[in-house]
Amino acid sequence: MPRTPFLAGCAATALMVCSAEAQADGWSATSPEASSCYPADLLFASSSYGSYTFNNDVWAPCQGVAAGKQTIWAKSNVDWGVSSKQPDTGHIKSYPHIGYAVNKPLSSLNSLTAVVSSTTPYGGAWESTFDIWAGNNAHEIMVWLNYTGLPDGCGNVKPISANWTFSGCAIPIQKDVPLSGGTWNVYVGSNGRNTVYSFLRTTKTDHTTLDVLAFMNYLKSRNYFDDVVLGEVQYGFEITSSPSGLSFASKNFAVTTE
C-alpha cells in the first residue's frame, strides 16, 4: 500500500528521546487518534540506532482515513515493538517499522540476509512483513511472514493484486514458489504509485532468516526489473484493525550484506 514518504525529525517533546546514545535507555513516541496528517511529528515519529531507523508510520490519516492511538518503542534494532489501537475499518492504518538502507545495485551484492524473530498477537487484522524498496521506490517487494488473512489471497487482509476472483480474493501469478527455506504465493499489482510484489508465506511464521536476494532475483528472472538499485529493507507490522489494542514486538532484527 502507498506510504507517505515524509519522515519526521526528532521533535522537541517529552514523548520522544531522539539520539542514538539516549536510545540505550529506550525511545518511544505516541501518536493520538487522527483523521488528518496532523500531528505529523508524532504520526511519523522517527529515530535511529546505528545503521537502523525506526518510524511510527501512521500514514492512513494522510490518505483521509482515521487512525487510532499508537505507541512505538525501541531499545535497539534487536529489541523494539509497538502497541496499536486501530478502528475496525477496512483500510490499512499504519506500518510501524525498522529500516536498513542498502542503496546498492543488485549486481554489486553477493548476499543480503535479514534475520528477525517476533511476537505477534491473536485477533485483529494485520500482517508481519518485510517491505523492500528498489528502483528509486518504483518497486515495492512485500514479504509476508505472518498475517491474519489466508495464503490464497482471501481473508481479512489481502495483498495488492491486478486480478481478483468474483468472491473478492486476490489471484496469485504463481503458487508454492520455493524461496529462502519456505514456499510462497506471489501477487503483483499497483497501488497507484508503484508496482507492489507480495510474497505470502504458505506456512506462517514469526521467525526467519530471509535471503532477500532470492526474492529480488526471482522477480528479475521474470523481467519485472533489471539491475535496479536496492534501496531500503524494512520490517514491521502493517495494521488494519486492532480495536481493543494489540501489541507486537520484534527481536534480533539484523541485516547483513556482502
From TrEMBL:
InterPro entries per the UniProt record, alphabetical: ConA-like_dom_sf (IPR013320), GH11/12 (IPR013319), GH12 (IPR002594)
Keywords for the protein's UniProt record, in alphabetical order: Carbohydrate metabolism, Glycosidase, Hydrolase, Polysaccharide degradation, Signal
Keyword Metal-binding: no
GO molecular function: hydrolase activity
Region forming the signal peptide: 1-24
Keyword Signal: yes
Family per record: Belongs to the glycosyl hydrolase 12 (cellulase H) family.
Protein name: Glycosyl hydrolase
